[in-house]
């Protein structure tokens, strides 16, 4: 089947792009469009043209699987130029999505009409490139400089109504009359001089706005390369004539293609979608979930309940007693009130959700109708066992029973029930109504139906699901524990926590490990360390600095002191000389003569620890593929997206280099730095983690 067809309907030619799933502008589509343009240009009987996408979408953009490979002609800027040069009115009929190159094709048409519900945008910078087929030159001539800079740098997808208000399109249609309306417009424009956006005047200069965007997106800042290039391309539209502006755009676009971010961001795009492919889920039917139960109304229970409510599910919360249930309800109310304050939810909708969609009690019997229950009680095996015994008693036979445990063995929890095939881990991240990641933890006896239900729930909650196996900490927390420990070793050996945080931020994380610890509360890690003290291997180096800090009841932000000081009214924490003195004392007590670390060495060690543990997680089958680890760290732990995730980053550094770093560090501590056999094997074969991502 040809991917582009031309159908004559009287004097109108309907050009239809049919390249499932999203009508991306592959080489075949570009060639097909070029042929269609030539055919229409040569046919005097055709008075007007409608360009439309088959299926759900107009065009989702360039075919990004072609990026990084030698370009196949015709290139898109040439196709859009030919489209714009056509001497007949061309109406773009936009349904579903016109994104990136898709919107650029529409902008090269003489007229644009979008169905209600369509989304339009220029999301290229999110993929490490910039609109490269006239988006930076045609858009400002239509909607002005400021609106273009906002659209291009945010990558925001706007709806048809906003696009109309901005002047990006000419009309909005009902979905079922889109084609007819477009044909009518094409007929009414026939014979009139053709509008060409490129012939419109250049946008007016606005030096303040330009200065503001240039300052916000400086190329020398991590993750800002494509954004700063995109700003420059748009700015070029102020002074350069259209054709030269197009040339400048192309130059900047090609630099992005070769730039530091594109491969990582495209990897992250496909990694997200690959993670959703969970083998068990395709073998089992998902249970339809309408009514849910949440056990525990603390930090996580309230967040999970809110996520469910905000996505159309009803919630029955069960707490220890009525007072705790009332507190659980108050916690949920507080979260929903926050959504109202931020304008995400109306007060009426909140009241409706709380009255009709939510109840909280101490009565397990109220869970009889729940399709899926998530347990989020204290992290104690004893308490969780008791909860699952109750759930097994009261829940209907096909209900899915999930635990949000962070570290406990889900096989042991499942064994408490007579239906271990229905038991699964659903590991949310805090705050659960905000964080995008959901680890779906598959225990030994978890059935495919439970997995399929978990994956479908993630989608319903608009979260990214990653399948994980059972181990201490699953994918994310297990890796976190190791790179966190590496940071503590560097702190004991001579680096200050403030330097470590700053080096990690400069790499691209929004916060350093000690800022994160202060925010989460140092008492949590302290309790875990105490619990594990008895089973700790004597060969493991132990860093007691944070214990010393906790003994002073400095638990972080919530107590005003932790690793940082949080002075009244100060916007952020500041380094604390008393903490530095505690660190010095611990060094002395351990006979450590402090050495100095460069920021680069801090990052090398931190990343080597992260990559090594991540490799072990893949090697043991805890993660299905390297890109699942990347997705976990990207969405749950603040790993900078423009670096693609730890294992993609490792590929870019080179696995031989990472391995040789680990071997060097192992000369100091061969217990902590034990290289993963997968890493050794890949390095020896000159292979990459990417080669293990099935469809890469
Ligand atoms: N190129 C190649 N494949 C693409 C693609 C693209 N631009 N966009 C989506 N796909 C693939 C996905 O990988 C997925 O494949 P799979 O089924 O094998 O996993 C399939 O299409 C369906 O995609 P989604 O799962 O994302 O489907 P949704 O219905 O949830 O979303 C969408 C559809 C909103 C179109 C979303 O896919 C999307 O946002 N796509 C990217 C849009 C984009 O960023 N476009 C700009 C590209 S860069 C560009 O145009 C440069 C130009 O300026 C020159
Ligand atoms: P929390 O202490 O804030 O809340 C726990 C709640 O469970 C309390 O309200 C308590 O009254 C209730 N509870 C205890 N026993 C109960 C019982 N038998 N029946 C009903 N309710 C009972 O704890 P938090 O932080 O919400 O953690 C809950 C679970 O989520 C733990 O397993 C934790 O490891 C996990 N988790 C925590 C994350 C976090 O960042 N806090 C992140 C991801 C998972």
CATH architecture of the largest domain: Alpha-Beta Complex
The CATH topology of the largest domain corresponds to 2-enoyl-CoA Hydratase, Chain A, domain 1
* Number of individual domains: 3
> In terms of structural class, how would the helical and strand content be classed?
alpha/beta
- Report strand %: 5-15%
Number of H/I helices:
29
Uncertain segments are none
Q: Which percent range fits the helix content?
A: 40-55%
Q: What is the number of strand segments?
A: 19
CATH H level, superfamily name of the largest domain: 2-enoyl-CoA Hydratase, Chain A, domain 1
Shape verdict: globular
Main beta sheet strand tally, sense and closure: 8 strands, mixed
Describe the protein:
The chain is of the alpha/beta class and 696 residues long. It has three domains: 4-258, 2-enoyl-CoA Hydratase, Chain A, domain 1; 289-468, NAD(P)-binding Rossmann-like Domain (Rossmann fold), CATH 3.40.50; 476-692, N-(1-d-carboxylethyl)-l-norvaline Dehydrogenase, domain 2 (Orthogonal Bundle), CATH 1.10.1040.50. It is 48% helix and 12% strand. The protein has 29 helices and 19 strands. An eight-stranded mixed sheet has the order 12-11-10-13-14-15-16-17, with helices on both faces. It is globular and about 85 Å long. The two termini are 26 Å apart. The model has no long low-confidence stretch (mean pLDDT 96). It binds 3-hydroxybutanoyl-coenzyme A and 1,4-dihydronicotinamide adenine dinucleotide. The site of 1,4-dihydronicotinamide adenine dinucleotide (NAI) has 24 residues, from helix 13 and helix 16. Residues 21-22, 24, 57, 60-65, 76, 97, 99-101, 104, 123-124, 127, 129, 131-133, 135, 270, 273 line the site of 3-hydroxybutanoyl-coenzyme A.
């Amino acid at each position: 089947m040809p991917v582009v067809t031309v159908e004559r309907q009287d004097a109108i030619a309907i050009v239809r792009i049919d390249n499932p799933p999203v009508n991306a502008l592959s080489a075949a589509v570009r060639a097909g469009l070029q042929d269609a343009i030539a055919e229409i240009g040569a046919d005097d009987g055709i008075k007007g043209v409608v360009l439309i996408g088959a299926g759900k979408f107009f065009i989702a953009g360039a075919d990004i699987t072609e990026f990084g490979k030698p370009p196949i002609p015709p290139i898109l800027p040439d196709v859009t130029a030919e489209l714009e040069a056509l001497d007949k009115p061309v109406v773009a009929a936009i349904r579903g999505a016109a994104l990136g190159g898709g919107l650029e094709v529409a902008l090269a048409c003489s007229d644009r009409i979008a169905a209600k519900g369509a989304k339009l945008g220029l999301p290229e910078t999110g993929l490490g490139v910039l609109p490269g087929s006239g988006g930076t030159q045609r858009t400002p001539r239509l909607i002005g400089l400021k609106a273009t800079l906002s659209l291009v740098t945010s990558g925001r997808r706007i709806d048809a109504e906003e696009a109309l208000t901005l002047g990006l399109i000419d009309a909005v249609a009902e979905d079922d009359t889109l084609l007819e309306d477009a044909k009518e417009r094409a007929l009414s424009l026939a014979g009139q001089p053709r509008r060409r956006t490129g012939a419109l005047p250049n946008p007016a200069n606005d030096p303040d706005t330009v200065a503001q965007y240039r300052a916000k997106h400086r190329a020398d800042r991590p993750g800002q390369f494509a954004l700063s290039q995109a700003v420059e391309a748009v700015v070029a539209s102020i002074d350069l004539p259209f054709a030269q502006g197009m040339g400048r755009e192309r130059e900047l676009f090609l630099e992005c293609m070769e730039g530091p971010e594109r491969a990582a961001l495209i990897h992250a795009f496909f990694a997200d979608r690959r993670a959703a492919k969970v083998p068990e889920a395709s073998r089992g039917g998902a249970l339809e979930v309408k009514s849910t139960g949440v056990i525990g109304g603390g930090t996580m229970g309230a967040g999970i309940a809110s996520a469910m409510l905000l996505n159309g599910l009803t919630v029955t919360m069960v707490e220890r007693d009525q007072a705790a249930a009332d507190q659980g309800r108050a916690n949920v109310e507080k979260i929903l009130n926050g959504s109202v304050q931020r304008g995400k939810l109306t007060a009426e909708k909140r009241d409706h959700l709380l009255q009709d969609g939510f109840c909280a009690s101490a009565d397990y019997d109220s869970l009889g109708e729940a399709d899926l229950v998530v347990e989020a009680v204290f992290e104690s095996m004893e308490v969780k066992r008791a909860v699952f015994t109750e759930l097994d008693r009261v829940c209907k036979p096909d209900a899915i029973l999930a635990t949000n445990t962070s570290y406990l063995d889900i096989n042991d929890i499942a064994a408490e029930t007579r239906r271990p095939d229905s038991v699964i881990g659903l590991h949310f991240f805090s705050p659960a109504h905000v964080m995008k990641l959901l680890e779906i933890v598959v225990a030994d006896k978890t059935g495919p139906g439970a997995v399929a239900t978990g994956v479908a729930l993630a989608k319903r909650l608009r979260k990214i699901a990653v399948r994980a196996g059972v181990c201490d900490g699953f994918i994310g927390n297990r890796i976190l524990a190791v790179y966190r420990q590496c940071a503590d070793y560097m702190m004991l050996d001579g680096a200050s926590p403030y330097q470590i945080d700053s080096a990690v931020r400069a790499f691209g994380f929004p916060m350093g490990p000690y800022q994160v610890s202060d925010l989460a509360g140092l008492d949590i890690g302290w309790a875990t360390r105490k619990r594990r003290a008895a089973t700790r291997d004597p060969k493991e180096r132990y860093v007691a600095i944070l214990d010393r800090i906790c003994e002073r009841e400095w638990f972080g932000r919530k107590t005003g002191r932790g690793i940082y000081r949080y002075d009244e009214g100060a916007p952020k924490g500041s380094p604390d000389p008393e903490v530095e003195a505690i660190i010095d004392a611990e060094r002395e007590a351990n006979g450590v003569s402090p050495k100095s670390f460069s920021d680069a060495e801090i990052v090398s060690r931190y990343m080597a620890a992260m990559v090594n543990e991540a490799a072990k997680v893949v090697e043991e089958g805890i993660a299905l593929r390297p890109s699942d680890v990347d997705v976990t760290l990207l969405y749950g732990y603040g790993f900078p997206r423009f670096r693609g995730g730890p294992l993609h980053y490792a590929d870019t550094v080179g696995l031989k280099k990472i391995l040789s770093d680990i071997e060097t560090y192992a000369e100091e501590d061969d217990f902590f730095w034990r290289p993963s056999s997968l890493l050794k094997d890949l390095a020896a074969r000159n292979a990459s983690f990417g080669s293990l991502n099935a469809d890469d």
